[in-house]
Design brief:
Blueprint: H1 5-17, E1 25-30, E2 33-49, E3 65-79, E4 84-91, E5 96-105, E6 112-120, H2 125-128, H3 141-146, E7 150-159, E8 163-170, E9 186-198, E10 201-213, E11 219-223, E12 235-240, E13 243-257, E14 260-273, E15 285-297, E16 304-306, E17 309-311, E18 322-340, E19 350-370, E20 374-390, E21 408-414, E22 417-426
Antiparallel strand pairs: 1-2, 2-3, 2-22, 3-4, 4-5, 5-6, 6-7, 7-8, 8-9, 9-10, 10-13, 11-12, 13-14, 14-15, 15-18, 16-17, 18-19, 19-20, 20-21, 20-22
Length: 427
């Protein structure tokens, strides 16, 4: 499905003319369902101070920067009939479906429900939080690499405002992609608990586990350098073949006190590979990543808490807006192998397992929520990474690591710096 430019223009015009539409725009009551309309438009700019890899190599224009319309999300929501809530969302930029599901609230309780359709799976505090309120322009490497986002499936949730338990069974995405798709069928569970949950004072803990089949038994674990428009993944474990299942366990913690918020996540990912007679092609692969971040609302606002994730408030003073400053440190380790030295000093080495590299990154940023519908973001990213590179006859240091019995010539440090900016309209 593709939406025409005129359709998108009409949607944007509807948002702009709506008076102070900080939330969804109420449309009508249809079939005993209160129907509303939401939208999100984001435009990004990245400037790359590349080091080893050319981060803008997907656009051979000789430029050090890139810009792109990142999202153009259009969402219809309905409350009713009865205890049913439903949503249909579509991203006109990415040409893909977003949330498309129905939720039945047992006994009318918003914390006790069945859900059927496509929705975000129960993992990752950052992944489950609203995209329009991301603390930083690019999500942390742990979220982008291991997080399972929207999938078709069914879920059951039970809890209160202070705790919750969600179990889900899922398959593929609603929008078709060229094979192989990232995930096959699987299941996920997440528990969240807030022993402190008062206005301006929140302490949250979360634990999740995902287990799913791999499509066509091939998985590639890699990460961009904290820049969504970067054309290179500077850590990359290569194509893992003979993979049976993938499991991820994740832990979350968040603390809010007044205008300050600290949060962090850790995920351990395992690829279970079946025996095909080749020890290197049958070796399991384990990797991990984590981050910790801090945010300060300079203008004094604090966060709320709903469904096990933080909620960002509107500005206390719409004309001057809500100002935030923040910093994040995140790390990912895709090395799970050892180098077997060559027979001579000039001979290439082999790898038992996979050496995808290690990457640490600092991100500092400032956010400005202006009035009720606009957000402006500016980030500066400093990356420190290292990775083994492959030697082949065609390309002496090709950026294309294989994971089994690769020829290793040298270990390369790659430490780029990146400036990122985002303009956002939402309603």
């Amino acid at each position: 499905m593709k939406l025409s430019r005129s359709t998108l223009s009409v949607a944007l015009l509807a948002a702009l003319v709506a008076p102070a539409a900080h939330a969804e725009i109420a449309l009508d009551v249809i079939g005993n369902s209160e129907v509303s309309f939401e939208g999100l438009v984001q435009a990004d700019y990245n400037y790359f101070d590349s080091d080893f890899a050319n981060l803008n190599s997907d656009l051979p224009d000789g430029q050090d920067s890139d810009n792109e319309l990142r999202r153009a999300e259009l969402v219809l929501k309905g409350k009713g009939p009865g205890n049913i809530d439903w949503v249909v969302g579509y991203d006109a930029k990415a040409d893909k479906w977003l949330d498309v599901n129905a939720k039945y609230k047992l006994g009318g309780d918003a914390n006790h429900y069945f859900q059927l359709g496509q929705f975000k799976q129960p993992n990752s505090l950052e992944e489950l939080s609203s995209t329009k309120n991301n603390d930083f322009i690019s999500k942390a490497a742990v979220t982008n690499t291991y997080g399972v986002a929207r999938r078709l499936g069914a879920a059951y949730h039970y809890g209160t405002n202070d705790w919750g338990l969600t179990a889900s069974y899922f398959t593929h995405e609603l929008t078709e992609h060229p094979a192989p798709t990232p995930h096959g069928p699987g299941f996920g569970v997440r528990g969240n608990w807030a022993p402190i949950n008062d206005k301006g004072s929140i302490l949250h803990f979360g634990l999740s586990y995902m287990d799913f089949d791999t499509f066509q038994d091939t998985v590639r674990v890699r990460a961009r350098p904290q820049a969504d428009l970067a054309g290179q993944r500077i850590v990359d474990a290569g194509n893992m073949t003979n993979v049976d299942r993938q499991q991820t366990i994740g832990g979350e913690v968040m603390w809010v006190t007044g205008p300050f918020k600290l949060q962090g996540e850790y995920m351990q990912n395992s690829l279970d590979r079946y025996n095909n007679g080749n020890p290197r092609q049958s070796k399991d692969f384990d990797s991990s990543a984590w981050y910790v971040s801090g945010l300060w609302n300079i203008t004094g606002e604090t966060w709320g808490y709903k469904d096990g994730v933080p909620t960002t408030p509107l500005p206390d003073q719409p004309a001057s807006g809500l100002w935030q400053v923040g910093a994040r440190f995140d790390s990912i380790d895709l090395d799970d192998g050892t180098v077997i030295p060559g027979a001579t000093p000039i001979a290439a080495s082999a790898v038992d397992g996979a050496l995808g590299g290690q990457m640490d990154a600092w991100t500092v940023g400032v956010n400005w929520y202006w009035r009720s519908n606009f957000k402006f973001m500016l980030n500066y990213v400093m990356v420190d990474s290292s990775r083994y590179f492959v030697r082949t006859p065609a390309a002496p240091y090709a950026d294309n690591p294989a994971n089994n019995n690769v020829l290793v010539n040298r270990k390369v440090d790659d430490n780029p710096n990146i400036i990122e900016a985002r303009v956002q309209l939402y309603w």
